[in-house]
């Protein structure tokens, strides 16, 4: 959803196994993940793109530009390439096993129930903490407009978005469509404005070369600083894989799953590169202030009236979009875990509109608890939640890549596998993700996030081992 990096969330910067044989999958299956799912094609197209574009780009990019200088453009290229490849791998797996479902199902099929349990719960934990963080971000914006206290506004936001998700998937899809439309339209308009400025049609005369060479050149703080910004940029582009959850609940599930995985990564990367490229060309990178939207900086430099308020509205829509999608994702992930026996059976319950309302309510309540923790104990409990989930998404991405490696190994000559370098590409991707982890470990402010996230993986692995042992013991007693 394009969330801000863990460090930014903590500072309240406004968005910001045990193997088993693969299960039998019906190749003709083309039904929604949840019977009665009615997301339309236009919903999926906008959710897929807008869902991955959030405050991490509109605000979080300022920190990356400030730290790495113009060379941050290369960081966006490399990170975007990683996202494109991960999504293409997902697409190939879904073609290899038609009707399999979401990316968690791909992991479960390739690596067994233990990996599915781990991936599902890690993903749920990541986004349920995001619910609380985004609610606080939205409340801070509303506080500036209304003067009402943040502790009152954050719960109201969660309740409002909870109602949207609990009523019907159609309502969720429509709301998310228009929220995403605002974000996408903003980027397109920003790119058009940038092109006009570079052609000297609006604003003062711009010298892109002078802006890029400001300070100490395009790489003022060295290569290490560029590498260190990879986690920040990656967290701003996270969320593409969530589109597979929505696509699986659409009218044309299998077709939409294929489209989403083929196109979303490239489109997301293009939008980010165009936005950052325009920023770097139109203003000196030294004028970018961390935590302050570089989009506002550019529009103020061009003399666009009302730039600050316009971007506040866009950022607020981005926060609402992320909050809306987070509740949707967590509820469907929790429902999927319950379907596999990895979560309480109560979360399998569907309303007459085919909405897992108990899962929606449970995820919203946990998100509300996280939001209150950010108010009552920002430096201890909330900081722990952010640290314990901040890097788990990298583990999930690693499981996606390794699942593709396993499936490609079954039939390496299958024509659905079109990515180059064979399974060597998977090794390169896993190595790249390990480098991101290493880059986070090197940075003192992110080291705790990596270590705490590793702890989360260990705890969930232990819970699964205990669950499996309990299940085996119950089975032996029943057999006796």
UniProtKB/TrEMBL annotation:
InterPro entries (alphabetical): AA-permease/SLC12A_dom, Amino_acid_permease_CS
GO CC term, one of those recorded: membrane
UniProt KW Protein transport keyword: no
Sequence ranges assigned to domain Amino acid permease/ SLC12A in this UniProt record: 43-447
GO BP: any one term: transmembrane transport
Subcellular localization(s) per the UniProt record: Membrane
Protein name according to UniProt: Amino acid permease
Organism of this sequence: Acidomonas methanolica NBRC 104435
């Amino acid at each position: 959803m394009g969330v801000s990096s863990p460090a930014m969330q903590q500072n309240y910067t406004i968005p910001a196994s045990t193997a088993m044989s693969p299960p039998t999958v019906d190749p003709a299956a083309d039904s929604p993940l949840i019977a009665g799912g009615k997301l339309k094609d236009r919903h999926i197209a906008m959710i897929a793109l807008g869902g991955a574009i959030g405050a991490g780009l509109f605000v979080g990019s300022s920190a990356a530009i400030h730290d790495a200088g113009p060379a941050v453009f290369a960081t966006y290229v490399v990170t975007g390439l990683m996202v494109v490849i991960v999504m293409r791998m997902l697409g190939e797996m879904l073609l290899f096993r038609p009707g399999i479902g979401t990316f968690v199902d791909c992991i479960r099929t390739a690596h067994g129930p233990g990996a599915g349990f781990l991936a599902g719960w890690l993903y749920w934990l990541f986004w349920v903490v995001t619910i609380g963080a985004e609610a606080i971000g939205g409340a801070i914006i509303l506080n500036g407009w209304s003067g009402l206290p943040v502790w009152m506004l954050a719960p109201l936001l969660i309740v409002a978005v909870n109602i949207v998700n609990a009523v019907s998937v159609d309502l969720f899809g429509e709301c998310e469509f228009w929220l995403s439309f605002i974000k996408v339209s903003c980027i397109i308009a920003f790119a058009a404005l940038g092109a006009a400025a570079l052609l000297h049609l609006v604003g003062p005369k711009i010298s892109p070369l002078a802006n890029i060479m400001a300070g100490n050149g395009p790489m003022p703080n060295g290569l290490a600083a560029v590498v260190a910004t990879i986690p920040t940029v990656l967290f701003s582009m996270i969320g593409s894989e969530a589109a597979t959850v929505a696509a699986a609940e659409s009218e044309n599930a299998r077709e939409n799953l294929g489209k989403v995985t083929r196109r979303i990564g490239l489109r997301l990367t293009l939008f980010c590169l165009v936005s950052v490229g325009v920023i770097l060309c139109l203003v000196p990178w030294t004028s970018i202030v961390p935590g302050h939207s570089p989009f506002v900086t550019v529009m103020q430099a061009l003399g666009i009236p009302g730039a600050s308020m316009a971007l506040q509205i866009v950022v607020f829509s981005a926060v609402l979009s992320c909050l809306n999608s987070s509740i949707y994702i967590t509820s469907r992930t929790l429902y999927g875990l319950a379907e596999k026996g990895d979560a309480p059976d109560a979360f399998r319950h569907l309303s007459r509109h085919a909405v897992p309302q108990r899962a929606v309510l449970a995820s919203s309540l946990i998100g509300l608890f996280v939001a209150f923790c950010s108010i009552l104990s920002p430096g201890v409990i909330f900081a722990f939640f952010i640290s314990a989930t901040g890097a788990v998404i990298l583990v999930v991405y690693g499981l996606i890549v390794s699942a593709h490696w396993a499936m490609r190994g079954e039939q390496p000559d299958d024509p659905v596998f079109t990515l180059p370098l064979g399974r060597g590409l998977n090794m390169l991707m896993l190595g790249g993700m390990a480098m991101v982890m290493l880059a986070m470990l090197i940075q003192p402010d992110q080291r705790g996030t990596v270590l705490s996230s590793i702890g989360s993986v260990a705890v969930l692995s232990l819970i699964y081992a205990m669950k499996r042992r309990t299940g085996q013991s119950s089975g032996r007693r029943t057999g006796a």
